[in-house]
Amino acid sequence: DRPAWASMADVIGLGVVVQELQTRFHTREMTIGGASIDPAGPTLLFPGINWTWQLVLERSSTLAVPLAVIGLATAWFHRFDPARVKYSTWSRRRNPIARLNAMLKPIARVNVISKPLTRLFGQISDPGKAMPTMVNAIRADIAATFALSPLTGIAIVASGILCLVEGAEVVQHVILPAIFGVLVAALADIAVRDSAAGMASLLFTAPKLKANYVVWKFFSVLAVTLMFTFIPAIRLLGMSPAAAISLLIGSCFAASAAVAFGILTRSPKLYVGFLLMLIYISLNLDKVSLLDFAGFHSVATHGIQFGYAGLSMVLLICAEIRHRSLLRKA
Q1: Axis crossing angle, helix 176-187 with helix 150-165, rounded to the nearest 10
Q2: pTM of the model
Q3: What pLDDT is stored for residue 122 in this prediction?
């Protein structure tokens, strides 16, 4: 028998199940798989756990540790306390990725980045001095992505080199899933950073940008996505054209989801959770064509490919409807 205090540490509740099985079947040995069985043996019926008041209290005691942690978290968690936002900004400087991006920002300050940004803000300050084209705006947003996160540019170069030197099988089954994992971090905040930084009103003074905000963000995000996935798609084209097509469609789907979820929720969290979950399930269910959204396994049918392409369009339409609704309320 385990001591009473041990139940507080059994948060998952596995100990209760094991103890109940030992009591019912008078054994101290149990295995889940990895053991031989006798199919001709009798069926053992497990009636379930006998829930006594003592057991209910023991299971309730497992809440003590999480509640204590929550109590400590309230001392620093600023979500519902605007007075602590400044502290949160300071604490983000200690984030290793944020610090590394800050160290690499001087590398990003080159003409290929500064020129598109200058063009966009030139349109805002003096529209007569620059061509107010959507292409310039897209270039500027891509440049802003690399300026804010130099690690994204480094990841693009590194993944491209790996895709060129490794075999197509390795690219499809190893490098490609890793690329999409990196894409989650690279794309998550592109659609929300303008409003989060309080720059949306300034950007909307640029010609045609306010009305075409969804289109602008989509092509900006898609361009960054294709920088990651274009070389893998070329490598897969010779081995499995269907996988290459799925990868390009999956790139569009990842880009449209980043834009749509960002505009709909004003937060990158839904996109991060959704895409990571989809990648995880897709990698573990490699025979299910419905989940092969990016050509990881070459099992997606033409119908599935058309389905993801259609879903990408639906997401963008939803984002456009939401954006225009916000403009009417403004």
Answers
A1: 170
A2: 0.68
A3: 43
